[in-house]
Amino acid sequence: MQKPKRVLLLYISVLSGHHRAAMAIEKALLSLNPETQVFSINSFHYTNPILEKVINRTYNGIIKRTPEVWEYLYDNPKVVKNTQALKEMMHRYNSTKMKALIADFKPDIVVCTQAFPCGLIADYKVTFAPNLSLVGVLTDFYPHSYWVYEAVDKYIVASNDAKARLLANGILEDKIHVFGIPIDTRFEKTHNKRAICRKMGLDSHKKTVLIMGGSGGLGPIKKVVAALDKINLDIQIIIVAGTNDRLVTYFKKRMQRFSKKITAIGYAHNIDELMEISDIIVTKPGGLTVSEALAKSTPIMIINPIPGQESKNTEFLLKEGAAVKAVNEAEAAILVESLCRAPVKLEAMKQASTRIGRSDSAINIAKMLLEL
Questions:
Q1: Prediction pTM value
Q2: What per-residue confidence (pLDDT) applies to 306?
Q3: Which of 4, 113, 186, 253 could form a disulfide with 21 if both were Cys (CB 3.0 to 4.6 A apart)?
């Protein structure tokens, strides 16, 4: 009898899509074979917690104050080339702890849901463990250059467009699998809309707009809600603020000032239910959030995408007809009203979401890992 697989899952940042993707894969693996040995770890924090804080603070600062700088840096061939030596130095510096972890856990497969640990393990593999299986799982719709390593055995991508870009970067076709971005298996289940609305004190006959700003509740959510409150349409609004407790408090203190029904919650563990009862989701286009919405066939309205990965996700979704984009909160309100009055357009967006959505992504990835 074959011994259970040992799978090492590497991501960065606990409050991130990379982590949610890793958790989705772990859950799928254990559902297929409960004896699978899975160890999931925040690789950046494990190898260098101080540098993790510095990089996170720097990244967040650039995104908030000078997003055009990040747009220039993101997947810029000159930047990629000029930072090659720095990247290799960081990999060597962090390899000591990673080598100890691999020696202790003895994984059959290492699965990375972010490019940094994928590159680290790729270089480690070349030097120390050529027979180690390495799988890169991309959590956005556009694979940037920091994902490209010959030592990666398999790539999981979200679309044929992503596959084509990897092929253009020299990755062999038999290494690339279009399974989608891994999301929790609960997104495969359907729910009773009336029961969910009743549980949340909502009207199942009204149009429902779900507003999200990622795990940190970022973006112009207050302004979007204020603009939506003025439209000439009887809608209800759900706000998911993530870890932004101040945002929840802000809305709860002002509920009586709004003409529309407002429900504000923090970190939600029933996003699958909320997306299923919603007619439109207004959100930043993070890879995981978008993939969850696609799995639920929920039309997407994008506002304030982060330059780089989120802008590329936006391009893909607009091209496929699964989303519309608002340049500001006023336009978001206008688009919501026009979509709610245009059932044919909403239905076309739902069908586009159904076409490109992959609710079974995590299960298919887990099956492949167990067969490797």
A1: 0.89
A2: 82
A3: 113
